[in-house]
Amino acid sequence: MLGADGIEAVIHAARDAFDLAPTAEITCEMNPGSGYPATVEQLAAVGVNRLSIGLQSALPDELTALGRRHSPQDAATLVARAKAAGIGNISLDLMWGIPGQTVASALQSLAFALSLAPTHISAYMLKIEPDTPFGRQPPVLPDEQTVCEIYETCCEQLEQAGYPRYEISNFARPGFESRHNLKYWNCEETLGLGPAAHSFMEGKRFYYPRDLAGFMAGNPPQDDGAGGDFTEYAMLQLRLRSGLRETACRLRYGHPIPLAMRQTAESLARHGLMSVDRDGIRLTTKGNLVSNEILARLL
After folding, report:
1. What is the phi/psi pair of residue 294, to 5°?
2. Is 195 exposed, middle or buried (0-12, 13-18, 19+ CB in 10 A)?
3. N or C: which end of the chain has fewer CB within 10 A?
4. Apex CA 142: angle with CA 139 and CA 148, to 5°?
5. 50-56 vs 89-96, strand pairing mode
6. pLDDT single digits (tens) 125-172
């Protein structure tokens, strides 16, 4: 939506300010369809080398229910154009648990996404937010058991197709895990610029308010408290398939995984929700479905 000239200006400013490596991952997010000021050919020309595309579903009825304006063919066309322009690193977004979805239809969407041969797939469960069309008039959604079956079945299909899960909702061909997202999950420093952007630097979290005029006037970001303590780190690491590792804990905090946390993990492992060994603890696919509850117990 920013246009090719605007995106090029941002990339050049970042390169000048931070001495970016030539191999830096530069992702642009877009939805399929027409009407954008910038084409994928222009994005490739100004330095974008990764594209995140909001496919969401490959079934027209489900897209209509979500209020999406693109067709499945629009997504296929966009992917083909991006690859022809030289952007080979492509991520597709899917949504699970959407109105009218069944296990069969979710698998249809997944098969369509895989047919486009992306390098990465993000698949998030629909969450109804307040003060949105769905929040004001909730749709009829698949029942909980169906959503669980969709998640577990699709995880298995993606693994078989060569896209192992590396985070609760993210799957990639080996070597194409999102560098951007991994910085969050590894609790590494990040800098966000612009209204509503959040940052984590030197042990502190801060953000810019949702105020364009204030940002343009140079108003400073707001303090958001300390960040990076063990509890936060453990919560983020447990989103990853690799889980919370003993060696990393000792290197970063000078202590092992707390005994009480290990004991809780072992009790959950007896129900198939976690895996525990001498190297660390991690959630299973089944455990991912109730990750918030598990994290609350562990932490």
Report:
1. -65, -45
2. middle
3. N
4. 140
5. parallel
6. 999 999 999 999 999 999 999 999 999 999 999 999 999 999 999 999
The type of residue at 278 is R
- Produce one character per residue of 19-34: b if its CB has 16 or more CB atoms within 10 Å, e if not: eeeeeeebbbebbbee
Encode pLDDT of 176-208 as tens digits.
999 999 999 999 999 999 999 999 999 999 999
Beta strands in 73-221 (DSSP E): 89-96, 120-125, 165-167, 170-172, 198-201, 204-207
SS3 101: coil
Q: Domain limits of the chain? A: 4-176, 188-226, 230-298
| Domain 4-176: CATH class, spelled out | alpha beta
CB-based contacts of 283: which residues, under 8 Å, 6+ apart?
168, 238, 243, 273, 274, 275, 291, 294
* Residues written for the chain: 299
- Contact present, 59 and 105 (Cβ < 8 Å): yes
Closest listed residue to residue 228, CA positions, set 275, 289, 186, 180: 186
**Which amino acid does the sequence have at 249?**
C
Q: Which of 281, 283, 288 is nearest to 125 (CA)?
A: 288
Q: Which two tokens stand for residue 44?
A: 């490739």
Q: Which residue has the tokens 């897209």?
A: 63
